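So, can you check this record?

>
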Amino acid sequence: MGNYDDIEEGIIEGAHGHIEQSIKVAQAIHDIDARVTAVEPGLHAQNVTGAVTVAVEHEHTYELNATAAATVTLSGVPGCQAAVVWSGSAGTLEGTAMTAGATAVAVKLTAGWKIYVVGASTPGDTTAPIPGMLTPSAINSSGFSLTVTGASDDVALHALPFAFTTDNGVSWSAFQASNALAVTGKAAATAYQCHARVRDAAGNTADTAMVSVTTAAAGDSTPPTPGTIAESGITASGFTLTISGAADAGGLHATPYAFSTDNGATWSAYQASSVLAVTGKSASTSYQCRGRVRDAAGNTADTLMKTVTTGAASKTPDQVGSMFAWFDASDPAALTMAGSNVSAWADKSGNSRNASQATSGFQPTKTTINGKDAVQFNGAAVTRLRHSSTWTVDATVGYTMCIVARFDNAPGSSESPFSANPSGTFRTGAGGFGVSGGASVSGQTGAGVLFFTAMTVKNGGPSYTWVGSTKSAVSNNTTPNLSTAFQIGAYSDSSSPMTGAVCEVWLYPTIVSDADISALYSYAKTKWGTV
């Protein structure tokens, strides 16, 4: 910006050296007898109408006769100066109003043309600044704080750009450098109409919208305890914020909670609930979140800032990497029916690792979840689908399993939507998801809730599990020896059957990254409506 100002000042200083001479020339030309038909060198006569561009040469003079309303723009190199004499109809020259008999000097600067009309004042910066937004905080019975955010100007703000009023503009504070003002000495339980005034370097001003601030009732000027803010349910487009532990000796307000995702620049409206579902955010983006709590007297306090990063954009399972198997009940070609029973579930990965059940009494049925087909298992009948060939993985590389499923009843601790190794190495269960023989993860979703879970297992660990977007470490004291068959709907042929539905299963012969697990969770949430 400094280099641009220096260039422009240099050009203007050079131009001013010629302005007086150019004006004299223009004024003399204005008195030329209309009967003279010869055009002297450096003098150009032209009829103009409508939108037209005139090419300008340095220190030449142009007689422009507007035969109708004309909008004239000029072309020329920076530093070029010319005199312009206007006749005929009114119009504009590079945006400057011109009427018959007007004479002007045009100067080309780096940023564009400056038009100096003879007898008119030199145009300057007349554009008002953007005033931004005024936000109150720290409200008590005798005052509050006011802060301006987002103020800007196309050239520059003044060195002392901010002034404030608490009486709707009747009186103003002195202009100051700081964008914040501590207001004191106010009456308790009183509403004040506040504005901020912002001025630019040229002296133009603009006011923020009015904000009404009501001081707290007398006798209570102590802010509440704001508690803490925590995030949950993170997806690619949003998350949930929850304030916990807020309290006040005199009681909280009926609608005590507000939230910010931009570090306090803007706030949600106050609400009764301590929970806010945040939507419409960008994937893989960090947001600086705060909670604001107010008490019954109107005193406020903010939580500490918590950075929340949204999940990765959704990926389909095959976009994550090479797959061992992919079972998708919503695919029209996925399920083979034997009457009302499902006798086989086709592998969508292209590896032909299909799961099937020849015995009709052990065959699951088909159901619908959120408008899509899913496979319904009956724990009492130990229904299950089995892939009889072995799945052998490199124990040092590990593997990843993901499931979208639902338990229909309050699940028992031994229900298994999927089992990769009936000999006891790995399974998922309703009481938690974990490596068999190691610690499981508590907090499993209950009956009728569609959930997403994922697990990465590696010999010697670390192994992890996800329930929704929540990641937890699990102990693993066994080698991932997957050299046996796997089953959907039960842990083995006779134990840990589930009662519920399975929508999709994805198997990878590698450890999938956290970012891709997040992308798969977004996929499941968008497609199936998981929690």
Notes: The radius of gyration is 37 Å. The first helix runs from residue 2 to 30.
